[in-house]
Amino acid sequence: MKVQVNGEAKDVPEGTTVRALVELLGLGDGPVAVEKNGEIVRRAQHVTELLSEGDVVEIVHFVGGG
Question: I want to staple 60 with a disulfide (CB 3.0 to 4.6 A). Which of 6, 26, 33, 55 is the partner?
Fold first, then answer.
């Protein structure tokens, strides 16, 4: 199925969760903020929140530095 991630169309398998998408994108190592269809997805919901065809997802990956 197709979803839009940070403005780019992506094909993901049916049943993909927010957490699986984050890992698929290689962002699983650090903290991320996720918005799906204009609503914040709490971190505790990442493993259960399913994506659907046409969802619009924004992911912000935090990077530490000095």
Answer: 33
Kindly give, in sequence order, each residue whose CB lies less than 8 Å from that of residue 8, ignoring residues fewer than 6 positions away: none
Rounded to two decimals, what is the model's pTM?
Answer: 0.90
Query: What contacts 15, CB < 8 A, 6 or more positions away?
Result: 50
Q: Report the C-alpha gap between 9 and 31 in whole angstroms.
A: 23
Phi then psi for residue 54, to 5 deg, are: 85, 0
Name the burial class of residue 46, with classes exposed (0-12), middle (13-18) and buried (19+) by CB atoms within 10 angstroms of its CB. middle
For residue 9, what are the contacts with CB-CB under 8 A and spacing of at least 6?
Answer: 2, 3
H/E segment holding residue 22: helix 18-24
